[in-house]
Amino acid sequence: MIKGLLTEVIISLEEFTGTAMPNLDYELIVNGEKYPGKLDGSGSLKVSIDADAKTGELVIYLDSARKNSLFWQLEFGALENVVDVSGIQARLNNLGYYCANENGQLDNSTQTAIRQFKAANGLPANAQIEPKLVEKLKQTYGF
């Protein structure tokens, strides 16, 4: 990787109901560097970070006193392809549809998560991995 090369990270936050979480203070920490800011009106943040960064942390402050917060450990560049079962599992987990392990196996918890995601997005609520599922995941997740 070329030293000093930056990449843009875009993260959007929603309640499980799909309601955006706008205008909340956040702190993104990558390679020891802090990127404080405020989520935009659609609950998103956009930050340029080192392109070679592999992990980070995100804290969202739910109140102005910063007493209540949400915390995530982040991995950059670790997401499997959306056409692979493990890539589908990762996206479903990140969207709040629990798949248990991201093991690449179409197990019961993954099938349940697929059904729930499909039902919530106007698709036939079966556990089949098909082009409409992949397209809806790409559209909802962003890639």
Descriptive overview:
With 143 residues, the chain is α+β, with helices and mostly antiparallel strands. It folds into two domains: 70 residues, Immunoglobulin-like; 57 residues, no CATH class. The chain contains three helices and six strands; from the N terminus they run ββββββααα. Strands 3-2-5-6 form a four-stranded antiparallel β-sheet, with no helix packed on it. The protein is globular, with a radius of gyration of 16 Å. The mean pLDDT is 93.
- From the spread of the alpha carbons, the general shape counts as globular
Query: What is the count of β-strands?
Result: 6
Mean pLDDT: 93
Classify the helix fraction into a percent range: 10-25%
The order of strands across the largest sheet is 3-2-5-6
Order of helices and strands: EEEEEEHHH
The main pleated sheet reads as: 4 strands, antiparallel
Which percent band covers the strand fraction? 25-35%
Structural class: alpha+beta
Distance between the termini: 23 Å
Low-confidence stretches: none
The CATH topology of the largest domain is Immunoglobulin-like
Individual helix count? 3
Round the Cα radius of gyration to an integer and report it: 16 Å
Indicate how many domains the architecture comprises.
Answer: 2
Fold topology:
Blueprint: E1 6-12, E2 25-30, E3 33-38, E4 44-50, E5 55-61, E6 69-75, H1 85-94, H2 108-120, H3 131-141
Antiparallel strand pairs: 1-4, 2-3, 2-5, 5-6
